[in-house]
Amino acid sequence: xxxxxxxxxxxxxxxxxxxxxxxxxxxxxxxxxxxxxxxxxxxxxxxxxxxxxxxxxxxxxxxxxxxxxxxxxxxxxxxxxxxxxxxxxxxxxxxxxxxxxxxxxxxxxxxxxxxxxxxxxxxxxxxxxxxxxxxxxxxxxxxxxxxxxxxxxxxxxxxxxxxxxxxxxxxxxxxxxxxxxxxxxxxxxxxxxxxxxxxxxxxxxxxxxxxxxxxxxxxxxxxx
Length: 224
Fold this sequence. Notes:
The chain is an alpha/beta fold.
């Protein structure tokens, strides 16, 4: 039985990639670059914003400025949205998991300001995350294990007793390198890109349905 659960954020809690793309698209359009959704998904999906702009302009100072501009647009979009697109079944899963596990963390390669504005908009009550690790807290981001190991340390739980929920190959690699059990959600990438994970589900609703089926069948290797 696992003692802690650590969530990724983008693509796991929030279906936020379309919002990120819209902000990046607007920044690049002002620079005379028309980035298609297909190119973004195939080339830049999952990369830190500053890395995207550095690759495009080969100018780190300009990349930093454009990253700040993108962050402002993202914040504005989140604040102006009537509701945020939460991954299917998340609220129900969170309700059920908090009845069984009280050590819950979040680790995202997004910057803290983006996570904070989203969590404020989601108005999760009570706030389920005991610890939140973001890009500013680690020197080496995913696929390195640093962030997940830091999360386990702050939760005071052995990495092998942690289950991670991820949606990307780099996130899965980071959690596996930390020695954690990984559940992948095929919300952002296709399932054949997530095969390093221990288990793969379509979304939280799919996870819950199959976990409850395991309970009914009397299986012992339950997720929670």
